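Below is a complete specimen:
___
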Amino acid sequence: MKKKTLPAFPPGAPRLIYLFLLLFLITAGANAQTVTGKVLDNENKPVDGATITVKGTSKVTSTNASGSFTINAGTNDILVVTYVGFATLEVPVSGRNNIAVSLFKGDGSDLNEVIVTALGVRKASKKLGYSTTSVSPDELVKNRTANLGESLEGRVAGLNITPPAAGAGASNQIRIRGQVGFAGADNSPLLVINGLPIDQGARFAEGRDQPRDRGDNLANINPDDIESMTVLKGAAAAAIYGSRAARGAIIITTKSGQKNQGIGVDFTSSYTTSQALNFMDEIVQTEYGQGQGGNKFTTAAQIQGNGQFGWGAKLDGEPAINYDGVTRPYSAYPHQLFDFLQTGTNLTNTLGLSGGGPNGSFRASISTTNSKGIVPSNEYKRRIFNVGINQTIAEKLKLLLNINYADEDYINPPQIGTQGDGAVNFFNRMPISTPIEAYREHAKDPATGAEWKTSGFQGTVNNPYFALQNGQTYKEDRNRLLGTATLRYDIKDWLYIQGRFNYDRGDNFAEWNTLNGTGANTIIATSTPTITYRGSYNLNHTTTTDINADFLLGTSNQFGKFSVEASFGGNTLRSEWKNIVQTSTNFTVPDLYSYRNGTVKGVNDGFNYSQQRVNSLYGTAEIGYNNLLYISGTGRNDWFSILDPSKNSKFYSSVSGSFVFSELLKNQQWLSYGKLRASWAQVGSVALVNPYDGALIYALGANLFNGQTTASINGTAAPNPYLQPFTVTEKEIGLETRLFKNKLLLDIAVFDKVTTDQIIDVNLSGASGYLTSKQNAASLKNSGLETLVELKAVQKKDFSWTTSWNNAWLKTKVLDAGNPSGTILLLYFNGTGNEFLGEIRYTEGLAMNQLYTKTYKRNDKGEILVSGAGATIGRPLASTTNPPGITPGFQPVGSSIPKFTGGWNNNFTYKNLSVGIHIDYKFGGTVLSSTLLNMTRQGLSKMSLQGRENGYVFPGIDEVTGTANTNVITVANNGLQNFWTDYRNNQIGDPFTFKSDFIKLRNISLAYNFSNLIKKVDVLKFVKGLSLSASCRNVAILYKDLPGLDPEAIQSSGDIRAGYENSSLPTTRNYNLTLNVKF
C-alpha cells in the first residue's frame, strides 16, 4: 500500500510565512515601548519595592528606593501596581512612556489591598471571608521596643499583648481572641516567618520552680528586617495550618531587596533608656520603723530574729541598733528598691546591604543589641544575621531564600514572683528604717562568711547585695537558625508548582549557681564524715530541631465573570528534642561551682530525648463572581506519629465567603467600599499531648531478683493511647465599609469559638496503680465583638491627621470541666513558694482563669462577721462555704482575663514631620496582690497604720452577740500584727483583691525625614535618605485600680499566674532615639 504523506507547502509558501512573521515582529516592535515611571504614596513619598506587572503577561519589575521603575510594555497594555499595605491600581499605558502613579494606604479593608495570608499567599482584601489586620512595618520601627511583640500592644482589635516586668530580653504574653486551652497550655499564636511555622516559645517566669523570664522567639526577629506583618485572627484565616492553627497566627515576611534598585546600604542606630516607675508611695508607710508591739528592737539578735516587722515605734531620728550591730538614725529611708535599681539601656545597631537587577534582588543585614536591665547585673545581648534572596533562575523558575540566625545571651535575668532571692522581694518586705548603705556594705557576715542575717525570714527574704557581690550568676546562651528555601515554577500563566524546605534549629545552654551561704547561717553543709559546703550548680542544655518540607500546586484563572483559584499541597514535619540536666550540691572545695565538685547529684539528672512527626495533605479552593461574590474553602488532613496508629488521622476544614456589596452600589458617592464576610472553621492542637503519653514505659530499678535487675512501671500517670488533639470550632461574621471617598473606615467582627475534647489530667483511684491519666474531657468557649473605626480627619497638601480606634469585647466560659465536681484546680498559690492568697480554677458556668480566695464571712444582711470570743476576738472571720470540689471557704472573685481591651491611635504629619500618640486600655480583669498582703501583715503598708496610736475597731458584727463589734485591737502585745497575720493564715483576700483595669498614654513618637533637605546639599548627595525619630513609651497611667503597682507588672507571660501579683518588678518608662541613614 502506498504510504500517504502530508502535502508539501505550495510554491512560495515559506516566503509568505517569513513575510507574515516579519510583519508580526515589526508590528510587535512598533507596539512595544520602554515605559518609565514613579510610584508615590498618598504623602508624595517614594514607594520602595512596589511591584509593576504588565497585566496578562509574565513581565514584572519593581520600584527602587526613589520609587522609579522601568518596564517594556505595549501602547495598549495595562500596568498593575501592587504593594503590601496599599490598594492595588491598574494603570493603562495609553501610549505614554512616562507614568506617575499615586497609591493610597490600606489597612485590610480596601477593595484591592494586597494581604499576605496563610502559606504566604498574597490575596486582595476583598476576597477574604475572615478577619485579618495588616501591621505597618513603619509603625514597628517608629514605636521601637525591645521585644517585637510589645510594639503591637493596643494596635490590633482582638490581639491582647501583656509585657511582664521581667528584665532585659523578657517575653510577652500574646493572645488572639482569648485562650483556646486551659491555663498552662500553649495559648500563644503560631508565628509564620517566611513560610516557616514556629511557636512563640515564651520561656516565662512561673514562681518558685522557674523564677526567671528568658525571652521568646519573637526576639529573633529584627523589626528593621520586616517587610510585612499580618495578624490572622480567626480559625478560618489560619485553618490551612490544621493542628497548629487553633491559636491564630502572625505572618511575618522579611525583606529580600527590590529588583532594579542597584546597590544600597542602610544603617539604623537605636538607643533606649529605661527608668523604673515608682508607684510604691501609694502603699508604703513612712511613719513607723522596725520593731514589734510599738517598740524598737534593742539588740541585733532581736532584729536577726524578727527584723522583717515594721510594728515598731514612731520614727524619731534617734540612734537605733541595726541587724549588723551598728547604730543608725531611726528615720525613714524610702525608695530603697528604686535606689537599688539602675537606669536600663538598650543599644541596637543594624547594617543592611541590598541590591537588585532585572532578574532578582537580595538583602543582607547584621544587627547587634546590647541591653542592661534595671536590676544590676542583668544584661541581654543579641546578634542577628539575616539574608533574603529573590532570584529568577530561568524564565519561569524563581528561587526565594531566607536565612535568619540569632545568637542571644541572657545574663542574670531577675528572679521575680516568688520568695527567696530577688531585690523586689527583699526591699518590699523589709522596714524602711534601715538605710540601703547598710545592706550594701554589710551583706556578708565576717564571722561566718555567710549572708548576714537581716531578719527572721532568712531564706525567704534574702539580701540581693550578697548575691551581687559574691558572684551568683545565671547565664544562658541561645542560638537559633531559621532557614527557608523556596522554588517556584510557573508552568503556565495560570498554573504553578512550588516546593519549600524549612529548617529550624535551636540550642540553649543555661548554667547557674546558688551561692554558698545564701539565706543561711553557715557555709557548712555537712561536717561528718567530711566537711562539705553549701550552694548549688545547675546545667540545662536543650537542642531542638524542626524540619519542614512542603509542596504546593496552584492555579488561578479567569472565565468570563468568574475567577477560580485552587491549590493542593502537602507537608511533612519532623521534630526532635534533646535535653541534658545536671545538678550538684554539697561541694568539697568551697566556692567552686562545678558538677564534679559536688558530692550530691540531682535526682533528675540525665539525658532526655523525644521525636515526633506530622504528615499532612491540604487543599484550597476559591470561586469569585464579577468582583462581587467570593466563596472559599480549605481542607487539611494531619497524621500524627505521637497518636495511636489506629486513631492518628485528623481532618480540619473551613468555609468562608465575602459579598462586596459596594459593587452593586457604584452610583452611591458616599460608599467607597463595602463588604460582608462570614466564615466557619474547625482546627485543632496537640500541644498538650507529649510524644510518649500513650506508651507504657518501664524503668530499671536498683533491686535484683535472681541476680537480674528488676523493672517497674515508670511514673504515676496512666498511659492513654486514645488521646486526640483538642478541637476548636469557630464561627465569624463581619462587616467592612469605607465611606466618603475612603475617609471613614468601619470594621466589625463577631465571633464564637468553642474548644472541645480539651486535654486534662483526670484523677484515678490509687488502687489502679496510677494517680492520674490524660483524657479528652473538657470544653471551653470564647465569644466576642471586635471593632475598628478609622477616620482620615484632615488631608491637606502639607498636613494630615489620621485617627483610629479599635476595641474588643471578650466573654469566656467553662462549658464542661470534665469531672463530676464541675471544677478543676489549676494552681494553689500557697503551694508554690509559700506565697499565700488563693488559687486559680476552671469551674463550669464561670469565666476561664477564675481566681478564688477566702472572703469575709457574712450574715444574711451581708454584714461582715467578727469573732466574739477567744484569742481571735475582734478579728474578721473567713467564709466557711464548702461547695463540691472547692477548697472550703474559697469563693470566686473574678477572672484574670480582661473583658474589654482597646486602643486609640493618632498620627499627624506636617510636611516631613510626623507625630504619633497612642492610648490603650484594658478593663474587666482581676488581680490578687500578695505584695500588699505581705507588706500589711509585716506593718510596712499604709493599710497597717489603722489603729497604731489609739487602737482599731474592725467594722463588723459580733458573731456571738449579733451586735456591732466594739473590741479594740492595739499595737501592744502584737495585737495589730496578729490581726493582719490572720489575713495571711486564713487566706482572706478581700482587702487584697483588685481590678487590673488601666488606661495608659502608651506612646508618643516624633519623626522627621531629612531626605529632601540633604538633596539640596551637594556634599551629601550620596545620602539617599536620612530620618531621625524619638519616642517615649509608658508615658503615663491615666487610670488604674491596683495600688502600688502598674497593673501590667505581672511576673509571668503565661496564663496561670497572670492574675496573681507577688514581688513584681516595676515597669519602666522608655525613651528612644533612632537614626536611619540610606546610601
